[in-house]
Automatic annotation (TrEMBL):
NCBIfam families: PRK09190.1
SUPFAM superfamilies: L30e-like, YlxR-like
Domain YlxR: 6-80
Name the record gives this protein: RNA-binding protein
Pfam families: YlxR
Amino acid sequence: MKGPLRRCLATREVLPKEAMIRFVVGPENQVVPDLTGRLPGRGMWLKADARALETALKKGGFSRAAKGGVKVPDNLAEVLRYLLSERLADLLGMARRAGAAVAGFQKVQEWLQAKRVGVLVEATDGSEAERARLVGRAELPVVVALPRERMGQAFGREAAVHVAIAPGKLADAIRQEASRLSGLSPAD
């Protein structure tokens, strides 16, 4: 394991910060998600996993970690999924504006052939057959996290099913946020 490690308040596992979500206690004694890790206060860390969140909610893990009673929103799982999907969409938009992303089957295919892709982002409601046809035998990280309409909004279009991100920090951040989002998504 590389980088700073933190202990999950539910599972007690020691994991890298990137695999976890930080929470702080807000001014009204309310548990607040801190996705960027920049809010003031003592951090409470939770593994980005739906079962870990469920365990923390059932067993009072947040109160134990905060060393006192705290208010936990009833819809914390939905709030986390929403915040992570918005953060992911913002990162896609940032990559587009930086010239580090393209959308559309043809453009993505061109980037794949030129080996300019650090991560491939696919729509959750896109065709698996088209995804397989596009990726072929290329060995690259593929992220399936957002619906086509939400991905399209990041590119100023109605929908986007295939998005290629150039290698670099934005690709790493997108991969990390998508991993945290998929961990919190309910099992099918």
